[in-house]
Structures are given as C-alpha cells and as structure tokens.
C-alpha cells in the first residue's frame, strides 16, 4: 500500500489539475490488484524464434510491460532504454526480477524489425490476440501500462521506468528494499520559463537533418537542473548543458530531427527538471518530403 501511495504522489505532482482525479482513480483501482496471465503464452526472440520461457513463480518481483497498437511503436518500446534499465536491475538485484514484455502489434513485421534493429535478445510475447489486455483491462494511457508485481502477481507500483526517472527511482527502491521518498521538497525547487513549447520545422527534404532550439530561463531563486530529457523516438536527439543554470540564466536545448522516410511528424520531447512545473513537454512538427 505504501508504494502505491508513493507512486500516486509522484503522478499527482506531475499531472495537471484536470488529470489528477483520473490518475487517482486509475491508481486506486490497481492498488494490490492481481494481474492475470493468459494460460497459453508464446515467447520469441526477435519475433521469430520460439523460446522456452514462462511466467516465474519464484521471482521476487516481475516487471510487466504492455505496449498496445496505438501510435508510434518504436517510440513506445524504447528498447535500448529497457536494456539499460534491465542491466541496472540485474546489477542491484541479480535473478530476483523477471521482465515480461507483451506487445500487441498493429504490424508484427514492424515489431520484429524493431527487435532486430535494436538487438533486443530478451524474450518477448507478441500477443496478436491482445489476450493480456482482454483479461485485465489495462488502462489506455501509456504511463499506466507498465507494472511492478510482487511474488503473488499483485501490483505494487505502476508507471514506466524508462519514460520517467521518478518511476525508475521508485522501482529500484522497491526492488532493492531501500526507502524511497516521494516528497517533492527533498530537493531545491525553482521556477523556469520556456521560450515556446512547440516549433514547426516546415517542409524540407527528408534526407536533411533539421535543428531547432528551445530555451529555458531560470526565473527562480535556486539553480535550475535538468534531470533527464526523453525523446519520443530515435529519430529525435537533444543536446544541452548538464551544468546547473543559475537564477536569471538560460539553458538552450537543441533538438535534432532526422527523418527515416518521407512523412508528416509530430514528436514530443519530455524534460524532467527541478522546476515546479516539471515535466515540460516540447513538441516539434513538420513535413519531411
């Protein structure tokens, strides 16, 4: 219960007022709920080679990752980030956590290609019947589609640790048995003003890399520190100074976009920092021809 309260506080801090009640309802509904697994599960490597892999009854914890067929698949998967997180978990709690990936694909070939491209050798279940969701009625919001379960398959935390550094910290704290503070006043907060939240790159040759720049001004009394910046897909990268920005100072965030093909795009860059309004959502759009 205490961990659900912790994760609840983390979500409510970052949610706007009109989303807090919904977040509260979701988290309360999933508090200590047992996740039911389909009776027949097939796991593969790279979406091709079947492997002998099943839900463990011995693991102290399980991280269950569900990815639906809505939106940009590679943006949701973030497999390189998962490889890094899994390696970190293994170094801190070797063999005590099982990772279970369930992908409900709109295109199985696309999933397989992403697995191969990202060299993701961990077993995954390509759940073409969406059976895990049908059994459990998983929330439609991506932030609520990853679960940390205890040995009895009951939910002890909700949230995606590769999309949110606070969630990652919470998962690691639970897994390692260390105390975790969900308070927002355990660090010096400041305020920040963003130059603009959205930039349009216009129409351009899809083979040419594009660059735009966002600017943060530290309008508070304490140093402004960026904790993490996440991009929604691999075609978008960012560059920024890791040094604290003093009051009245500016931080430039350079965003580069390199199209993989001709397309119209809308991408989101999420900035986690010690500002009261964190996280900030930067959006870029345009048409690559």
From TrEMBL:
Coiled coil: none annotated. InterPro entries: DUF1573, Ig-like_fold, Thioredoxin-like_sf. It comes from the Bacteria. SUPFAM superfamilies: Thioredoxin-like. PROSITE patterns: PROKAR_LIPOPROTEIN (PS51257). Pfam families: DUF1573. This is DUF1573 domain-containing protein.
